[in-house]
Amino acid sequence: xxxxxxxxxxxxxxxxxxxxxxxxxxxxxxxxxxxDAAPHISLMNYTYLPSSxxxxxxxxxxxxxxxxxxxxxxLANPRVSLLVHDWVSARPPxxxxxxxxxxxxxxxxxxxxxxxxxxxxxxxxRISATINGDASFVPQGSDEEKWLKAQHLANNTFGSEIEGxxxxxxxxxxxxxxxxxxxxxxxxxxxxxxxxxxRIRDARIADWKGGVTDWVMAEQDERPxxxxx
Length: 229
Known about the structure:
By secondary structure, this protein is of the alpha+beta class. It has helices spanning about 15-25, 70-75, 110-125, 145-155, 185; strands at about 10, 25-35, 40-45, 45-50, 60-65, 80-85, 125-135, 195-205, 210-215. One of its GO terms (cellular component) is cytoplasm.
């Protein structure tokens, strides 16, 4: 049985392991709900900001085209859940008949590959977290929107990207991709793209051993003051 603390942790800052996961993960899953309670989930590019010139609180930003299902859902119901994790994606070898192990057995890998696989597994297989929050659309054309778009673009531009790889399609219609920039010209810089800001309310963090930690963002009047006064 997973171990879970009886009382949620309450603080004005995110737990450090959650911060590290948000800073290291490439994508997250965004769950929204339609007015008739139909669930919808999207794999999204995102940017985590511990604070900004416009808010002292931690927040997550994403972009979405105005005609998408998630946009319609967010307009009707701003409450969202996010799933972020740093598990490795490769399956370990199994004993199932007729199914090849993934990754391949150690006998078919070089010693260096085996070492690197072990290092990656140790470094990445740590936690998954479900984050609950309230989403809002940043006013179009505002200084805040311009600033957030710049942060989002910088956070999702990678030196090792290959032209045509399609990294920027997440969160947008693939037919709207730009060429030569992974689609970023559309999913960040497009004039009609809306910036979504999620203010974090609480989170549930599960580690690979089955331990579960609940965390809640402290209300403004609950936050500790300087020097305790």
